[in-house]
Amino acid sequence: MNISNLNGTLSLKNGVEMPYLGLGVYKAKGDEVIQAVKHALFTGYRAIDTAAMYKNEKGVGKAIASSPLKREEIFITSKVWNSDQGYDSTIKAFHHSLNELDFKYLDLFLIHWPVKEKYQDTWRALETLYEEGKIKAIGVSNFLTDHLEDLFQTCKIKPMVNQFEFHPKLIQQDLIDFCHRNEIKTQAWSPLMQGDLNNEALAAIGNKYNKTVAQVILRWDLQKGIATIPKSSNPDRIEENANIFDFQLSEKDMQEIDNLNQDRRLGPNPANFNF
């Protein structure tokens, strides 16, 4: 992955270009999400990650509609929630998301969680929508290796993206390697450990480069070949998270951050969640 600037992208298996740094909008509601997306686009972000479960797709759509940018200049991701999984219900849920956003298409649509005995039918729905041209790329979220191997048994199209919890305390290198072997791009959610950034090793690395801990972590994401979507509605934080293209972590510093791994999840475990 060539890390160049805030407008940089990585190529998905089907040739679609996905920005490797975007804005996550989980928990942002009403005018808060509208202002956050507006500021992100003004700052230079070109990717916004939302989901039906966030209940803010309408606000994301309003912010983009008010932007001077063309719709095709912005990469929008949304996700089908667990209670909507299944073939017909996923088709219906997708069109509801599209209506909330007031878009004609989505850039990326994901299965939010691998709901047992449903995600195969949900994936068939995504394949249908993709083949109909309503989605530019399709993928999954929170899928572990066994979920992906199971999906491979029945899918016509392999996922192009797998978005999962990834941060210095939870690296999941085996999952990353599996995805990359199968030409699935990886994307980190909760890259900043839900704001738990009080770490001496990370602070020391940041001091070397005159960068914050958050900036060090996001740069580490990209240098590991992982796209990232830090969430924030704070204008200063949105700008800070984007200011990571004027330095490069050394191999030693990359390894030191890797060594912080504790296999510690901050969110649910996809292997045994029950939503």
Name its key features.
single chain; 275 residues; alpha/beta; TIM Barrel; 8-stranded parallel sheet; 10 strands; 15% strand; NADP
Secondary-structure element pattern, one letter each: EEEHEHEHEHEHEHEHHEHH
CATH architectural category:
Alpha-Beta Barrel
Shape, principal axes of CA atoms:
globular
CATH topology: TIM Barrel
What do the pLDDT scores average to? 97
Query: Structural class of the secondary structure composition?
Result: alpha/beta
Number of separate strands = 10
- Which percent range fits the helix content? 25-40%
Distance between the termini: 35 Å
Strand order across the biggest sheet? Answer: 3-4-5-6-7-8-9-10
Describe this structure in a few short sentences:
Belongs to the aldo/keto reductase family. This protein has 275 residues and is of the alpha/beta class.
Question: How would you sum up this structure, described in words?
Answer:
The protein is 38% helix and 15% strand. The protein has 275 residues and is of the alpha/beta class. The protein has one domain (9-258): TIM Barrel (Alpha-Beta Barrel). The strands form 2 sheets. It has an 8-stranded parallel beta sheet. Strands 1-2 form a two-stranded antiparallel sheet. α1 (30-43) packs parallel to α9, α2 crosses α3 (87-101) and α7 (200-209) packs across α8. The longest helix is centred in the middle third of the chain and has 15 residues, at 87-101. The mean pLDDT is 97. Keywords: NADP, Oxidoreductase. This is Aldo/keto reductase.
Which helices and strands occur, and which strands form pairs?
Layout: E1 9-11, E2 17-19, E3 23-24, H1 30-43, E4 47-49, H2 57-65, E5 75-80, H3 87-101, E6 106-111, H4 119-131, E7 135-141, H5 145-152, E8 161-165, H6 173-181, E9 185-189, H7 200-209, H8 213-223, E10 227-228, H9 235-242, H10 251-258
Parallel strand pairs: 3-4, 4-5, 5-6, 6-7, 7-8, 8-9, 9-10
Antiparallel strand pairs: 1-2
Organism: Fulvivirga sediminis
Family: Belongs to the aldo/keto reductase family.
Keywords: NADP, Oxidoreductase
